[in-house]
Design goal:
42% helix
């Protein structure tokens, strides 16, 4: 008796983003350019990631309307 073959489910693989090292280096450069302010590490990380992905992320210092 022949066993039915089973297809493997297709898995969606997310598009690869920039390497963490690249994001970290760009964030560091942005941080240095702005005078090494304290407490804004997440902002610089998100800005670097957005720049590398080609998207916009508002900074925390932009006015909210």
């Amino acid at each position: 008796m022949k066993m039915p073959t089973r297809k493997r489910p297709s898995r969606s693989v997310p598009a690869p983003g920039p390497a963490l090292e690249v994001i970290a280096r760009l964030a560091e450069l942005m941080w240095e350019k702005e005078g090494c302010p304290e407490g804004r590490d997440i902002e610089f990380w998100l800005r670097a990631e957005a720049e590398l992905k080609g998207t916009d992320v508002p900074t925390l210092h932009e006015s909210k309307r």
